[in-house]
Design brief:
- The complex is a heterodimer of chains A (243) and B (226).
- Chain A has 243 residues and is mostly helical.
- Chain A has a single domain, classed as Orthogonal Bundle (MetI-like fold), CATH 1.10.3720.
- In chain A, 79% of the residues lie in helices and 0% in strands.
- In chain A, helix 3 packs antiparallel against helix 5.
- The longest helix of chain A is centred in the N-terminal third of the chain and has 33 residues.
- The radius of gyration of chain A is 21 Å and the shape is elongated.
- With 226 residues, chain B is mainly α.
- Chain B has a single domain, classed as MetI-like (MetI-like fold, Orthogonal Bundle), CATH 1.10.3720.
- Helix content of chain B is 79%, strand content 0%.
- Chain B is elongated, with a radius of gyration of 22 Å.
- The chains are: A mainly alpha (243), B mainly alpha (226).
């Protein structure tokens, strides 16, 4: 396809009012992708945060927390998506997508939260205990605030990954921006493929920018400088892994 | 609904008959999967080495290069393969180049971090012994950075094994092509699960081989639990 021609037809596609309205319009498809991602994240957080906080506080289950990410990396998202969508009681559509994405969002949150809480200095914990704080008090008022940079990094990594991967859900018949790409390949329509690719990429990059700002914002001021280097290193192994 | 139940009854997830009957297809998919994975990672390494050397010489470029590859990393594989599709068309290169972009970030970051982590004292000692800049790189820095570099290659490889499946979109997805065609073929459970397990097996195989390689090439490192 000639680049000038491709650019022209893309311009026409994006300026066509028909592509901005209705079931298959850009706003509806974008919102679908955001909804699928938010639901998946809500499920993943509800499962992984409590487990990781408690295990991290007790400093137990190190093996689980450090290896779950490796297992997640080895399992292809496409496989899990299609397996879930082929189970008759789940079926094709958004449910399979939400469940699959939630499964893949658990490892980064779990690993980072566990590492953050379990990694709090022994001296700090002892001081808190010496002040007469209970286990729950230590977790909620000492360990959790200190672990915020890592927890936030984990949530950010997972969310960006989920928003990006949500485009794959179209392969199992769910909505979202991936719809354009999958339909484009089915119809041999290069403009539709490229438009879908641009939209999914833009949404993922936007999510990354928003969440990296959010991550900085929630990090307690005293930890901002110290936390950063550590956070950056933590991200490498978990990011993307599975998309 | 009765029809669905009936279809379900004759649609097992695990089937030895399937593996026997479709062995040639499974082997072909596995070979394609390995080829696509290795080609992407090798391409990523070939591009990463000169970039890492450039960053080592001009540390100012550290931020921009890693920042740009970080943005590329955020782009979903589905989108990147689609964007490259008009350029390379129905060829394995569409998948190889797209996946090499993702591998690049991990490999490049680990080379740069590995080289940066070499203690200053060691570099000073090497300098004091009269080693040239090139000798310091090849005899001191690179050997010390090797474990980190190899870990990057291992992580990139295992991630690539999973992402190759998305190549099914353009017909080059190794086991992914079987997963997708099984799905489109009336939710053919045996094919979907067997191909997914094939993928997991391949990822574990690469993980193991590269871990052994790390041990052999850098025997002085004791692996930390993390």
């Amino acid at each position: 396809m000639d680049p000038a021609e491709a650019g022209m037809s893309l311009w026409q596609w994006f300026t066509d009012p028909a592509n901005w309205t209705g079931e298959n319009g850009i706003p509806v498809r974008t919102w679908e992708q955001i909804q699928i991602s938010l639901l998946a994240m809500a499920i993943a957080l509800a499962i992984s945060l409590p487990v990781a906080l408690v295990l991290g506080h007790l400093r137990k289950g190190m093996f689980l927390a450090t290896n779950i990410g490796n297992v997640g990396r080895a399992v292809p998202t496409l496989g899990v998506l299609t397996i879930l969508a082929s189970i008759p009681s789940i079926g094709i559509g958004n449910t399979a997508a939400v469940l699959a994405l939630a499964l893949f969002a658990i490892p980064p949150v779990l690993t980072n939260t566990y590492t953050g809480v379990a990694g709090v200095d022994d001296e700090v914990r002892d001081a808190a205990r010496g002040m007469g704080m209970s286990g729950l008090g230590i977790l909620s008022r000492v360990e959790m605030p200190l672990a915020v940079p890592l927890i936030a990094a984990g949530i950010r990594t997972a969310t960006v990954q989920v928003v990006a991967t949500a485009s794959l859900a179209a392969l199992v018949g769910s909505g979202g921006l991936g719809r354009y790409v999958v339909d484009g390949f089915a119809l041999q329509d290069n403009t539709l493929i490229l438009a879908g690719a641009i939209l999914t990429a833009a949404l993922a990059v936007l999510a990354e920018l928003l969440l990296s700002t959010g991550q900085r914002w929630v990090t307690p001021r005293g930890l901002r400088h110290a936390g950063r280097a550590e956070v950056e290193i933590q991200e490498i192994p978990t990011a993307k892994g599975v998309v | 609904m009765a029809a669905a139940t009936l279809a379900d009854a004759s649609n097992p997830w695990l089937s030895w008959t399937y593996i026997q009957d479709y062995w040639p297809e499974l082997v072909a998919a596995g070979k394609e999967h390995i080829y696509l994975t290795v080609a992407s990672v090798v391409l990523a390494i070939i591009v990463a080495i000169p970039l890492a050397m450039l960053i080592r010489r001009l540390p100012v470029l550290n931020g921009p290069i890693l920042g740009l590859s970080g943005v590329l990393y955020t782009i979903p594989s589905l989108a990147l393969i689609s964007l490259l599709w008009p350029v390379f068309g129905l060829s394995p290169w569409t998948v190889i180049v797209a996946l090499a972009v993702y591998g690049l970030l991990v490999v490049l970051r680990n080379i740069v971090v590995g080289l940066q982590e070499v203690p200053g004292d060691v570099l000073d000692a090497a300098d004091g012994m009269g080693l040239t800049n090139r000798q310091i790189l090849t005899r001191v820095s690179l050997p010390l950075a090797l474990p980190t570099i190899l870990a990057g290659i291992r992580i990139a490889t295992v991630s690539t094994v999973g992402m190759v499946t998305i190549g099914a979109l353009v017909g080059y997805g190794g086991f992914g092509t079987l997963i997708l065609s099984g799905f489109q073929n009336n939710f053919w459970h045996a094919q979907i699960l067997t191909a997914t397990l094939g993928c997991v097996l391949l990822a574990s195989f690469f993980e193991l081989v590269l871990l052994v390689l790390e041990k052999v090439l850098a025997p002085w490192t004791r692996r930390r639990p993390a």
